[in-house]
Structures are given as structure tokens and as C-alpha cells.
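fwd from M.: "can u put these together and see what the complex looks like"

so here's what she sent:
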Amino acid sequence: MNFFKRQWMVPYLFLAPALIGTIAFKLYPIFIGFWESLIYTSFSGGAEKRIFVWFENYQYLFDDKIFWKSLEITAFLTIIINPLQIAMSLGLALLLMRKSKFIRIIRSLYLLPIGIALPIATIIWGLMLDPNQGLINGLIGVFGIPPQPFLVSENQALWCIIAIATWKGVAFWMLFLLAGLEDIPKQYYEAAEIDGATPFQKFRYVTIPQLKRTILFVFVADTAANFVLMVPMIILTKGGPLQSTNVLIYEGYRSGFYYQDWGRSLSIITILTVITLIVIGLQLLFLSEKNEGIKVK
Amino acid sequence: MKKILASLCTIFLFSNIVTSAKAEINFLIGTWAEEPLTPFVEAFEKETGIEVNIQTFPFRDLLATIEVRGNAQADDVDVIFVDAPLVPSYAVRGMIGPMDQYFADTSVNAIFAPAGIAAASWNGEMYAPPLNNSGQLTYYNKDLLAKAGCAEPSMIEAERVTWEEIVDCAKKITDEANGIHGFIFDQISRYYQLQALPESAGGGSGVCEGGLSVKGCLTNDGWMKAGQFYYDIHNTSNISPKGVGPDQTHELFGLGKIGIFVGGSWNNGRWADTDLNYGVALHPYFEGGKVVTGCNSWHIGVWNYSKQKDDAAKLVRYLTASPEVAIHYVEEHNSLPAHNSAILHVAEDPKFNNFPGIVMNLATYESANHCATRGRTPGFLEFEEIVNTSFEDIRNGGDPASVLADAESRIESSMRRYK
């Protein structure tokens, strides 16, 4: 009973379940992953030996052009897919804010992709993008466009995956932005209208500043989600053609589960974790309220 | 009330004791083997009282699951399916144990064909007895060949068709506008089947002597010729379609969309219910080169971390050493046997002398005389994955020389763990 009288402990008590969960399921695996990335497993002489090699696995990685190519693809994917998904989600959210008799039906239609599991969506898109018998080639053929190789082309495969992930992700992120838009007080828009603001000015000086925290959350969460995007690679491309879709997370997965090189795999995953933290840190730094770039006039 | 509760508790405890006394083993297999094996597993359960829990996985997932369970040294696995070339890898890493002691009362040479025993062994010990074997043949669509004016490939050794003849004919058949292609491999971009190309061109298996290096063995002239051939059929002459997976190839042939199909004996039963007018011939080779076909298949091993190795070994022996299982595989699934009794059955039953049964006879001949055992290396898992990816990259337009050079360097780097 005395325990509960010590009031300073109460918040910690409430936080404890979440903290324990974070430590057990987030921090501990990250630590284990890092520790195992310093270990080299040798089968020399027919017996398994685990050797602590400090950063030798990383050294091998940095000398490996597959790793650098993979890093390049991950960077390209991140630069394209995150702004694209945020812009499309925001655009959709703004469209769905408009008053219409059928708005509920339209909103439900746009939310449909959320209800389809990513592996299923990927398989369906894979069938549609089939270069020989796919629906998409049939559709573009109507406009006189020749059949495209899509997922078997070095130049098109990553774009196809961006399209699939965006189709699946946009509706989900739009939900948050829609909630954020609903939260903006109507009086702000009325005041802007009285001041003679154009629709663009209302968007620029009312919507964006008021939505900034939501956008920041969506940006951070979307970035983290896309860094670990690999279902389409596993199901459709296996990192190919010619490594054009071989993102870091897939290379890490493949090194561990296909090549049994856990030292290499966990070195890649550790580097990916660090990159994710840096990118998210930069996003928080530049987009958080303290460093506000956009002032409400 | 208390008495009733006490009685219930006693019954509950007693039933648990009885249940736990019954042996139960977990058996990891490929999805394709569930149907053929289930009746025999049930018979084994009846005969021994050992309960077998079958867990099925698709090909890639099966290998990944075995790796994950092996890495965790999990004791909830007892028996596993083993792809023949993975025997050294699993043995070196201690994932499967030697089986000789469980066959001590008999002669394995009397049960299995020598090639099966060789594939099952590493360093002179048998680790995973063979369940079956495999053989590759040339299937052709008679109507498409006649329309193109091509001669039908032969079943006679002296008239064996060459890859050059296959390409010439396939060019005449190909009509891309109508979705018809002249040629396709059954297992597209898979080392198992494509190994025959570099082997026939004199390039070897890709794995160097000793099994711990690929330096110079994946980029020699034979492999370059094979890589260029694979590139050309998909990118120059376009006789083979892109974007088709190994699971779709037999369907395309069955639909009459492919002129010539090189694939395993097991495909034969797949077209039994179609109107396809097809024939079968020996496997192709490069003119002036060696005659080589893919072979070996699935084996079964006892999981080294199992706590019930004796029971597990009983199941392995029951499934691999029983003539009934091997003959069932031949009769019902067109799988080539590794068991001597089933090999004899194929040789003696007259139905295997006429089409379509002759497929089994031809495949047995190919496997017995022209089998190219896949590269023997403890790093086979990495080797195969990288080679498969490289073939797929070449198929999708990658320069064969640079793709193979990359693959060689990558495999060489992963092999350092075994040196």
C-alpha cells in the first residue's frame, strides 16, 4: 500500500507495460541484431564455429558492390515513393473533404485497398502486369501502345513496385490526413474567405500549417514503412531483374534466409536501422513545430 | 461435489499421461508430396503406433523453414525433406544425422540404385536416403512441328536431337502475335534443369574440384556458351517467352502454345486429360558436346536436433526402403524411382514400352546414363540461389558474361565460410 502512496511512481507504473513491450520487442531485438552482426559463422573443417570478428562483416559489406547497388536502389525508392504517397494521400484527402451526396460511398471505395492484404494485392497486380497475358497490356493495347515487359524489365520493375505499394498505401495514409483535415476549425477558412483568400492561399496558409503535425506523423510512419517494404520483391521480382528491385531489406532477408549468412544479413539490417533513424531524425528536425518553415500569416 | 471434482481431475491427468505417452513426430515436406505420401504415412502410423504430423510447404518456403529451424536448433522437427544437392550442406552444418546405423541390418546397395546412394551421402556416410529420382526429356507438339515442317525429335540415341536443331525448328514455330513460342524449359531459370547446358558445352557443374570454390568454373567457355544460348532464346530469336514462371510452363505446353518442351518425366501425367497431340524424345545436347541431363530428386533425413531420432528413422526407412512407396510414385506420379525394385518394375512391365508409358523408360535411361549430378558443395544453397538469379537476369536481358562474372564473385565470397 505504501508503494501506491509514493505518487512519483504512479506514472512509471502506467508506462511500465508499454516500456517493457518496447524493450522486449524493439530494443532487445535491435541489440541482439547488432551483436550478431559482429559474429562470423564458419563451417570450416565441417564444424560450426562462431567467431567474434568486430566489424569485419561490415568491412566485407562495404567492399561488396551488391550492397552499394542495393543501397542506391533503397535511396531512390525512398526519395520517390514517400513524397509521392504523401502528395497523393493529401490530394485524395482534400478531394474527399468536398461535400457530395455520394461522399460516403466514394470514401469507402477509396478505402478498399486497405482491406486487401499486401501479399494478395501483390499477387493480383502481378497477374495484371504479366507481360504475356496481363490485363494492363491488354488495356494499353487499346490505345495502340505495344506490350510492356513491366516486372521483367530492369527499367520498369521498380516503378511497378512503387505503383503497387502506392496503390495499397495511399488510402491508409489518407485516413490520417482526412482526420487531420476534419480537425481544422471551419472558422479559419471563413476568416480567410472574408480576407479574400483564393483557394490556393487557403490551402497554403490555413490547411498546410494546421495539418503540419499530421503530415509529420504520416511522413515519418510512411518512411519507416517503406524502408521495410519487401513483400512485392519476395513475391514478384526476387530483387531482379538485374538487381533493379533489390532493396536493402530484401538483400538482408535474402542473405539470412537464402544464403544463411547471418553476419552479413544482420549487418545490413543494422545499417538499415541506422539509416532509418537518421532519415526520421532529419524529418523530425526539419518538419517539427520548433523549426517551423511555414508561418501562418 | 469434491469427490466429483477430484475424479474429473484424475481422469484429466490420466488422459494427459496416456496422450503424452504416444509418440508423435513432425515431418516437414513439400506441398507436392502430401498427396502421394499421406496414405503411406497413415499406414506407418497404424503399423507402429507413432503419430506423424505432416507439415507442408511450397519449395522455397520449405528450404527457408528448414534453415530457420536449423538455425534455432529447434527440437520440434523430426524428419525433413532434403533436396539431393543439399545433403552435404545439411550434413556439414549438423542439421541431419548419419543414417547408416538404421540400415545396419540390410544392404543399402540392395535397396537403392548407386546414384541415389551417392547423392544421399557425404564423406562416406549416408545421411538422407532417396525417396525418388528424376530424368529430363524432350516433349513436342506434333501438330505445331508438322505445321512448321520440322522433323520430330527421336527416341533413338544415335539420332538424339541437338540444341541447334531445337532452335532452328523453334524459330519456324514461333508466332508471337498469336502467343505461340517454339521452345520452353520446364523449370525456367533453375540450375537443376539448366545445368545440362554448360555441362553439354564442356563447362562442368559450375563448382570446382573439392566443392569449396567456383573461381573460373562459372565463367569458363562452357558456361559462357550456355549463358549466351539462354540469352539468345529469350532475347534474340525470342523462341522462349519471358515473364513465365516454372509453374506455368507445362500449362502453356498443354494448351498447345509451345512447340518443344524440355522437362521432367512427372509432366507426362499432366496432359493425360487434354487433347494435346504430343510425342516424347531424348534430351537435347550441343552438337559436338556431351550428352547430359538433370537428375536426382528428393531425399528424406532425420533432423539432428530431434529428441525422437529412433522413431524418426523408422519413418525414413519405411518411406524410402518400401518398394510399395517407390512403385506408387512411378504409377501414380510419373516420378523416376531410386529404389531398385521400382527400377526393375519399370524395366519389366510392358506398358512402359509404349507411349505414353515409355516416358518412364526413356527418363530411366537418361538418368542412368547421362546424369549430371548437381555441384557437390556444402555451400549449395547459396550457390543455387545465386545461379538461379543469374539465369533469370540473363533471361531478362542481362549480359551473360558480366552476370556470370558477378555470380562467380558473389558465390566465391559466400564460400569463404566453408574453407
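replying to her w this: The longest strand of chain A covers residues 39-42.
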